[in-house]
Amino acid sequence: IHVVTGATVTPVLTLDAFDRERAKSVIVDVLPRGNYRLGHIPGALNWPVDEIHQLAPRNISDRAARIVVY
Question: Could you read off the pLDDT of 1-51 as tens digits, one per residue?
Fold first, then answer.
């Protein structure tokens, strides 16, 4: 897990970093399926928080992949 602390993060910096890393990342939306259908980051997987423990092991083939959860 990579955690950055003590830094000021602006939305522009966050989106720029996200775009650079997107190809190497698995993006996971943990909201309920209805919310996911209303809108989500393109390419994001929907693993509702109450199902994430079952879905993650079955759907991540690259154990070294960066997982971005929102």
Answer: 444 455 565 555 566 776 777 777 888 999 999 999 999 988 899 999 999
Buried b (16+ CB within 10 A) or exposed e, 14-46: eeeeeeeeeeeebbbbbbeeeebeeebeeebbb
Structure tokens belonging to residue 22: 């997107």
Round to whole Å and give the CA distance between 20 and 7.
Answer: 19
Cβ(51)–Cβ(39) below 8 Å: no
**Cβ proximity of 31 and 48 under 8 Å:** yes
